[in-house]
């Protein structure tokens, strides 16, 4: 790893008193929100989608960094498959509906 600590530093919630940190965080998460808008996912459903995307990517990165992938398959291929599977999930994302009588 060429820059240990860089990725973990991106996982913190931005400090509200630090405008530069807030702007950087909004840009980073904004990219994922933009991707979800392309799938028609908005509002609270987008929050769920962002969390799912971040959790999947974080899990992959954390396992890779810890040497947790020992099977003989190219990691980039597995990562690409994960991203493709997320695309399928986002394509069939349940509509967010307001709670109310059925």
Briefly say what this structure is.
Helix content is 63%, strand content 0%. The chain has 4 helices and no strands.
Describe this structure in words.
By secondary structure, the chain is an all-alpha fold. It has helices spanning 6-9, 19-38, 43-65, 75-91. Helix 2 (19-38) packs across helix 3 and helix 3 (43-65) runs antiparallel to helix 4. The longest helix has 23 residues, at 43-65.
Features:
63% helix; 4 helices; disordered C terminus; 0% strand; 102 residues; single chain; flat; mainly alpha
Q: Helix- and strand-based class?
A: mainly alpha
Q: Shape, please?
A: flat
Instruction: Give a quick account of the main beta sheet: strands, pairing sense, barrel closure.
Output: none
Q: Which stretches of 5+ consecutive residues score pLDDT under 50?
A: 97-102
The rounded Rg comes to 16 Å
Question: Which secondary structure elements does this structure contain, and how are they paired or packed?
Answer:
Elements: H1 6-9, H2 19-38, H3 43-65, H4 75-91
């Amino acid at each position: 790893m060429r820059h240990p600590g860089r990725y973990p530093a991106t996982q913190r919630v931005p400090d509200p008193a630090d405008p530069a940190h807030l702007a950087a965080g909004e840009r980073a998460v904004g990219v994922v929100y933009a991707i979800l808008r392309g799938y028609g996912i908005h509002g609270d459903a987008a929050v769920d989608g962002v969390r799912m995307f971040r959790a999947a990517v974080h899990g992959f990165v954390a396992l890779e960094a810890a040497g947790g992938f020992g099977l003989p398959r190219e990691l980039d291929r597995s990562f690409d498959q994960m991203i493709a599977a997320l695309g399928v999930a986002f394509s069939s994302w349940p509509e967010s509906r307001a709670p109310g009588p059925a």
